[in-house]
Amino acid sequence: MKTLYLECHMGAAGDMLMGALLELLPDPDAFLETINSIGLPGVEIQAEPSVKCGITGTHISVKIHGEEEHSEDHHHPDTHTHEHSHQGTPVHSHSHTHEHHHHCHRGMAEILEILEHLNVAEDVKQDVKQIYQLIAKAEGQVHGKEVSEIHFHEVGTLDAIADITGCVMLLHQLGAEQIVVSPVSTGFGQVHCAHGILPVPAPATALLLTGIPCKAGSVEGELCTPTGAALLKYFATSYGQMPEMVMEKIGYGMGAKDFQAANCVRAILGEA
After folding, report:
1. Which of 41, 97, 99, 259 is most buried (CB neighbours < 10 A)?
2. CA 74 → CA 29, 35, 90, 228, distances in Å?
3. Phi/psi at 46 (nearest 5 deg)?
4. What kind and span of H or E run contains 15?
């Protein structure tokens, strides 16, 4: 049985998952050419080599009109004039300023409108919509609102839409019959989100992770983002350690920060 194993000992974010899955393809450049032509306005996805603890993998960057978008759902260094957290970093304060020109708060109708016009297969489009429904349901439960009233902050940015769509496209292309996910490290402490300083995992992320084996791990800060949690919840067929399988390809998707442990998601494709 064609099996995909996702090792999430350093959590999961959309960009890390996309980087790991991209490395499993025979022609990653062809995929990048495809995803950059699906019709996301002003978006360019790039794959860059990245080394963590001596391991070479792929870091995904998403540029909006030529500038890299730093959504707080990404594991990127962020730059605000207020307190915030990065992946693996406690809440702290920056004194410099960098405006996020492309951030906006999109409602579900706006997200669906963007998705409807993408040049992707209908089954891919439907999966992306369902993943956003999972996120909206969790956000609605946290904030006591209906799904139609939810306005996405971090996960509504164009880079988050690109991450989710890219991961769905990759998973369809890989065609695994089962997807096994390791226990997910969430991190611990506090994280700065659009609504303020919240516990880790953030409330919506925690709801998305219900039913999934998790652990805090040893890193203070947010390791698993809402996008990462929603992708794992939607696609995983089971959870646990790697099953008995013949490994054929291995991919590493790298986060931006450096820790004592390799900051990556590892994806292993093979036959079980």
Report:
1. 259
2. 22, 18, 16, 9
3. -125, 145
4. helix 14-22
